[in-house]
Amino acid sequence: MRFFPWGFWLLCVASAPARGDSGSKARSCAEVRQLYGAKGFSLSGVPQAEISGEHLRICPQGYTCCTSEMEENFANKSRSEFEAMMKEAGRSVQTTLTAQHRSFDSYFQDLLNKSEKALYDAFPSIYGELYTQNMKVFKDLYSELRRYYRGSNINLEEALNEFWTRLLERLFKLMNSQYLITDEYLDCMVKHAEQHKPFGEVPRDLKVKATRAFIAARSYAQGFLVGSDVVKKVSQVSLSHECTRAIMKLMYCPHCRGMSSVKPCNNYCLNVVKGCLANQADLNTEWKYLMDSLVVVADRIDGPYNVDTVIGTIHMRIAEAISNLQENKDSITAKVFQGCGNPKINTKGSSSEDKKRRGKVALEAKSSAQALEMLVLDAKGNLTALKTYWITLPSSLCSKKVTASAAADDKCWNGMTKGSYLPEVMGDGLANQINNPEVEVDITKPDMTIRQQIMQLKIMTNRLGNANIGNDVDFQDASDDMSGSGSGDSCPDDVCGKRLSKSPSTRQPETHAIPKQSGHGISGASSRSLPSTFLLILWVAFIAAQHLWR
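and the corresponding structure tokens:
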């Protein structure tokens, strides 16, 4: 019978590729043993030379230097190392954003502090008791301005209006101390006096300019913090089980196969990382909007809103307002008396002339416009560089951390052996991973932590958009904005709707993957443990044997 020679020959030919380029002699596992020990694992049970790999569940099941225990340890190590790469990349972005926030915050707070100090230094000598007896009014103003800038839910226009009202009441009473001014009389006085602009145009002008400047400044500063917080939270998202297997296969399976010097193919690495970071890539659109919005508001701060001049000269505008009141004191008083009646004489009072000093204000403001210009210029450069962070992260990790081979290399690790990598590179984002040949991604289940961060970016961008046109916004805590997010509402319809509409039944067959192996829960790319040519030849041998037997 001719069956035995034919079948034997075909089986011999079919089994030849299983050893790859290892030759007839089992290769040494010295390199893997060295790597395994360097990772902190015991060398007990580690093979000295290659063994058969039928036990492997992630790496190709050819000859191998890895036991089941080694494969599991390498998988856990690859997971922790990849998550560490993500956090390290995120920390770099966080450092940039927090540094920008710190620089601007320091500049702005210093600007406000210098204005307040200039007021405290100059007003006692200029106004005497007009200032010293009303010091709290001025301190309260600067305190409210700081609270507003730091994010407290304060209506800035109302705070400024309250300051001018309190200041008018105190100064009117002090400048007319020979009269007995009651609280009821002061209420009437304010109504009549404000019609005649006792402080001139200063309150209205300062309210418009200061409001725009403060809204822009606090939104700008908060934008950096929100961006940094988003990166931090997203960097802490754990890898999926499928991703862990794919990362293991990318980073450590070549070592198990005795190919420690062979680098992963670049496109292979990109597909693995893009599949693992599919949800993160969906941050890209809103992230770019936030970076662009910060750049626009930065131009406003250094341009039309003129933060340096407006904030740095608040004390001078207050002094100008007080001078206007002093100059118009007699006419304002006469109009108030006409509308509210003459108050009673205060027999215990002394002449107001002894309690006030007149004189033109000679205050100076030291400009720090050049410092602001440099801050804005530096910030715009960094923001522009960070715009594409989420979609360039896979290529950055592959080139700098995984140290993948050059794109044209045809002798790289392709997930099975040393050779070229044929599958095309997937697009960015969750929806584009439907046919990822390396990582099985369920595009109908977006990561909710990342969806919440997408919403945070949208909220912050909206605040910056309002700040750009001078509109005040409710600046509650970021955590409050996401109340109830656990219900799943945090995934916007325009983001999730399209992707959820793709049911599993519409998925195209994965042309580079073998179906799951029963009993092991192995899926996707990780299940391709034997070369397809080997299976094909076995099938041919079986058909030939059947034919010859007949």
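(Above: one complete record from the training split.) The two ends are 10 Å apart (CA to CA).
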